[in-house]
Each structure stands twice: as C-alpha cells, then as structure tokens.
Specification:
The chain has 355 residues and is of the alpha/beta class. The chain is 34% helix and 19% strand. Helix 2 crosses helix 7 and helix 12 runs parallel beside helix 13. Keywords: ATP-binding, Cytoplasm, Nucleotide-binding, Nucleotidyltransferase, Transferase, tRNA processing.
C-alpha cells in the first residue's frame, strides 16, 4: 500500500456541533469524505475510520488501511435520524423506541438495507448496522458530509481499539488522509449492537449501553448465541475475529477476588522464573498486591465506567514495554462489566485460568 501524507488536525473539544461546522478543518474533512478519502475522527466510544459508505472504492480503502478481512461488515454512521430512511427498507417500532431512548449515543441498530450502500460495507448481507454518535465532532463531520459514513474503529485489525489520537497515529499514520484529534474518548468501549430485524431484538455485541438499560427500555431482548457460547462466533460487525489484542499473550484469571489476585501473583512469578517479561492488568484496588512486577491499572473496580475508559490504553501499554505474557483480572458479568469482559475474552483469544 502506497503511503499517504496524513494530516493531524487538533479540533477544540469545548465547541458545540454548530460551532464545529464553521471550522475550515471540519469542512475540509467532510469534503474529503465526499471525494472518497479516509478520515479518522473521535466518537464517544472509540476513534472511527470513516469513508463514504455508498462507494465501493472508498469503503474498500478502509479494509486496506486496517488490514481487515473483507467478510467483516462495517458499521455505518449518520448525523441525523432522518437519514435512516435513505439507507434502510423499514424501521420497526422497537427501533423507534431505541432511537428515541438512546440516540445519539453508543447504540448501533441492525436493520434491513435498501441496496444503496456499497457491498463491501454490508459484506453482501441484506442488513446493515447503523448508529448516530453523540460526540459533537463526529456529529458535525457527519452532518457536513451529509452522506452515510462507514466507520469501524481506527486501528489495525486485531489491535486494541483507539481511544486517543495517539493510538490512531501509531496504527494508521501514512495509511489515511486526515486524523481529527479532539482528545480522549469518553466511553472507551464500542457501541452496543442490537439486531431489530426479527420478532424479538437480539443483542449482538455488549457495549456502552448495558443489557439492563435495554431491557428497561424495550422489555424482552435475546442474546446472540455467540455471546453465550464462546465456541460460536458472534454475528456483530467487528466481533468475528480475534480482536482488541495486545501483542503479548493475554490470560484471563477468574475466581473469587482474593484467590484470583493470589493466583495472578503466583502465575506471574512462575513466568518470570521461565525468563518471560510479565505484565499484570489489574485495578487500582489491587495494585499494591503486585509490587515488583510490571503493573498497568485499568481503572477502579468499584467504578466500571473508569475501567471501560482505560481498558484499551492499558492493553497498549504492554506493547510499549514489549511484555510477552499478561495476566488480567476478571470482573463479574453484569452491567458495563459484561461489555468489558467480552472485550477481555476476545483479547485473550479465549485463554482463561481458574483460581
């Protein structure tokens, strides 16, 4: 792939959507998207890599830049709810309920598309995943471009998702045209994906909106078998392959809290004795239990949102130190921790040790 000149533009984080739409950098980025270019931009979840979702050549460039398998569909981002009718065949009543409650925000809906999108975006399926982000820079860009934008996470495929512009630059400098930098993202894990094409909505990917919040809004919701049975692959975009992974070998350690921490310490000492460079992924409450080891904190166990925000940055820290084997703390499967554990299990490639 021939290297591009990547422009890194800092965008003020304090401006509202209308103010942002007046900035020349934002207008230039929107114009480049309409011309078929690649723009990385912040959303409330992670940074996305955007291209025109209606053009085969533009959307194919996303796959080339990321090194992403072509059978992995992309999430389409739009700036206004009215754009849904331009790319979908129908919007079921439950979709309207979810849109009213959670959009703009970290929610993606799977709907039947009307054939107006590039086949590379839908991977040849009759459905498309669509969301309206709430980040003002994302909304301003999407409204200025006024076209559906395919935008998976702005990282090399398989790597931890980017929550800062530095992460994007590390992975994609020279492969994209523009990077819009508006500081760290506020949610830290990707959007929740819900399929609303059947009789009962199906959770395909847990994310920034919890299953408890979804049930409160719409009542019954089922879970994709790929989330319940770890031997089956989920159907959601971005979840089919090993994902979110650091370069070192990550192991999830599960069990009662005290025995889990003891087991992590024991495993780390055994790996050190084998000459391995070892890392520990833990929370602030347990940092002191691993003195003498390379420790990265991913937030506070009693504040799940802090773990979500810091998780991907923490995983990238191990790569910076060239850590060979990582032992990670596990979390209970409820609320936002459900989404966090989903990402950790994917990052570990299913490697789990019971304490």
């Amino acid at each position: 792939m021939q290297l591009k000149t990547t422009h890194w533009w800092k965008i003020p984080s304090h401006k509202n959507v209308e103010e942002l739409k007046e900035l020349e950098e934002m207008r230039s980025a929107a114009r480049l998207l309409r011309e078929g270019g690649l723009v990385a931009f912040p959303t409330e979840t992670v940074y996305g890599l955007g291209a025109d979702a209606t053009k085969e050549e533009a959307s194919s460039a996303i796959f080339a830049a990321k090194g992403r398998p072509k059978d992995n569909p992309l999430i389409v981002h739009i700036g206004q709810k009215k754009q849904l009718t331009q790319i979908t065949r129908e919007i079921p009543p439950v979709a309207h309920q979810l849109l009213h409650r959670f959009c703009p925000g970290p929610l993606t809906l799977v709907l039947k598309h009307n054939g107006s999108l590039a086949q590379t975006v839908t991977a040849g399926l009759d459905t498309v995943a669509v969301r309206i982000p709430s980040h003002p820079v994302a909304l301003a860009l999407l409204q200025l471009a006024d076209i559906p934008i395919a935008a998976p996470s702005a990282n090399r495929s398989g790597r931890p998702s980017p929550t800062t512009a530095d992460h994007v630059w590390s992975d994609l400098a020279g492969k994209i045209d523009i990077l819009l930098d508006s500081g760290p993202t506020s949610v830290g894990v990707e959007s929740t994906v819900v399929d609303v094409t059947g009789k009962v909505p199906v959770l395909l990917r847990p994310g920034g909106i919890t299953i408890e919040e979804l049930k409160k809004a719409i009542g019954k919701i089922e879970m994709d078998p790929g989330l319940l049975n770890q031997k089956r692959k989920p159907r959601s975009p971005g979840m089919k392959y090993k994902h979110y992974a650091p370069q070192g070998e990550l192991w999830l350690v599960q069990g009662e809290e005290k025995s889990m921490i003891r087991k992590m310490r024991q495993l780390a000492e055994q790996a050190l004795a084998r000459g391995k460079k070892v890392g520990i992924l833990t929370t602030e409450e347990h940092q002191d239990q691993f003195r003498g080891l390379f420790v990265v904190s991913c937030g506070r166990r009693k504040e799940p949102a802090s773990v979500a925000i810091r998780l991907y940055d923490a995983l990238r820290r191990f790569d910076e130190e060239k850590v060979e084997i990582i032992y990670a703390e596990s979390f209970p499967q409820y609320g936002l921790f459900h989404s966090i554990m989903n990402r950790l299990w994917k990052a570990a490639g299913g490697r789990v040790i019971k304490s």
